[in-house]
Fold each of these.
Amino acid sequence: MTPAAAAVGAGAGSGAVSPESAQQAIGYPSLFLLVMVGALVPVVPTGAIVSSAAAVAFHHSDPALPLVLVFAVAATAAFAGDALLYWLGQRGVRSQGGSRWLAWMRGQVAAEPLERARSRLERRGSTVLLVSRLVPAGRVPVMLACLMARMPLRAYLRGNLPAALAWAATYQLIGLLGGALFPHPWQGVAAAVALTLLIAVTPPAWRRVRGLRERRAAAASGAATGAR
């Protein structure tokens, strides 16, 4: 028997757990909890968490199963968190006094994004949920619009299932890209987090710049009209 085989046999006989197995035993429940909490209270950067987990899984000795588990856990947690938040919001809609969760959701959404979400919901139905999960800060306005439209929980869940799957797949692909670009897991995690934050920041920044340009153009137009 070779020394390597003897070492493996000794480890198996003593019941030793590999570092990768220990990481998975801790990492998957933590991933589920963080993503689900982030779905309820969107201050946790869930996209960055999923991308980071995918980047780490990419560097496993056999990455196929860890990557499948990251996707399954992330999608399940996102779906469960959305379902719970919608159910809590429904209780507020049905109650005359409202609820703390419904009031919190209304406080998170300005009038203009809510009106856009309502308009899209009227035109596209539950298919708007797919896009809302992928657009930064787009999930809560659409969810609130669905609540205001009295969409049943079952109909919301049917539309939200493909949205949760697409969301998990998108951020896992970002993590895979970060993991593939760099030889060390921490470098892949850093790249995945940077890409995720860039995706999250770009749309609001662009809307702000566009709004500023529109206001400047309107002011210039008004000044030109007044000078005539």
Amino acid sequence: MKATELNARPSADFEAKLADTRALLQQAARDYAPVFPNGPALVSQASSLGAEDMVITHLINTLGLAIGIFVLDTGKLHAETLDLLAQLKANSQAPVEVFSPVNEAVVQFVQREGDDAMYKSIELRKACCHIRKMEPLERALKDKKAWITGLRREQSGARAEVPLIDNSDVRRVKFNPLADWTWGDVWHYIQQHQVVYNPLHDQFFPSIGCAPCTRAISLGEDFRAGRWWWENESAKECGLHVKPHSSHEVAVSQSDTHGTFVSAQAHIAAGDVKPEGRAEAKATTQINEGTHV
């Protein structure tokens, strides 16, 4: 079953949410317009190429807004994600930039820690995320005064209080135009407007990251259960959307680290995760309006 058929269930106030989202994107484009004609905008959309981000990109293009789009190609993305990126670059009216990690940093890290370092400890996994995501993000946001994300309150407990406009970072403003959208709202929009999306969503991947760190979810699992599935819930962020001194940055004990490695290796040995990081969905995932499983 297609993700659109399974998930497209709009909220009763969907049209009002959509109007607010359009207005917020227009505000971002207006408040952070280029400082000179034909110059770069001071606001960009950070796209993971997930369902939410494809909705935002579609709105940016439909509204003809002067907002650029950037994607972080970590070097570990699924083939389906890379194919979607190629489609986006070919068809988007808004400019799309791709930022990759520094090759030498990746090579040195893999030589030193191994290609499976992310499974060995949370510290090493976050070090991998820093090289492949955080450092490229800093380059992508250089000289930007604001950025736009697909964060939604419904995605996880850590994101339950995501505001529409986040001023907590003194360096730049973060706009979260889908903060109050449900998963059903997202897919209703995609279905209505025939928005292209990652086919992994049809294979029960609601949240898609790097291939080694993402699997499908099964009936009853949390929306982000497929991300870093071997870690405890308090660690499941890469750092892109974690505020300084957040509880998500608390160090994990050596015993937890050992358990993390054993759990990850057990999943792989059992065949639950294929080499490219996928898992087979064990049951049809049903997502009711306002609820993720």
